[in-house]
Fold this protein.
Amino acid sequence: MKLSLFGGGAVNLAYVGIKLFAGVASNSFFLISLSAYYALLFSLRFYLLGHIRKKNPGDCLLSELKRARNCGVLLFVMGLALSVIVFFVVYLNRGYRYPGILIYAVGGYTVYSVTSAFFELFLHGKNATPVEATTGIVKLTAALVSFLALESAVFERLGGSVSFGSRRIILGTTGGGICLAVLSMSVLMISRAHRKLRRFNEKTDG
């Protein structure tokens, strides 16, 4: 778990740097917004790592549940922010064409993040502790946003070979689905953590 957070966080941070550099160099609102989004995802990993550095997953259920709830709240806010980014990309045509071979780096990161996210969820399954489950959801969120960024970049690279109307429909459907998934996962995180915290407190009071 520690290795997963450290490794994923390091790759996440490197991706923030690539996005920020490309966004500032090209004055791209889309890339700067995505770099800020990934920076927040990195902060969530760091927040979870603060617990695991001191304890193994499952050793302190109360602390894990509180962290899971807090991560869910922040992820919900981030989901709303992502909706704004998707709006700019889809309806205002604010995508970005990556220079040179940078699009292959984005594609490589997307493959890595999607594979890693599903592996994490499959590895722990229903027996996951709150921190393990939250880590898996954060990874999945990063993977979904990476897929959206790659899809937008591919359409920009294809240029006029795909009509603006078709691109808007595809990106709108994908982006809307991803935003809905992020918001749904965050609400589920908050609801589960709140319910388990209430049960924990009832047992303690009893």
About this structure: DSSP finds six helices and no strands in the chain. The two ends are 33 Å apart (CA to CA). The helical segments are 2-26, 29-52, 61-91, 102-124, 130-158, 164-205.
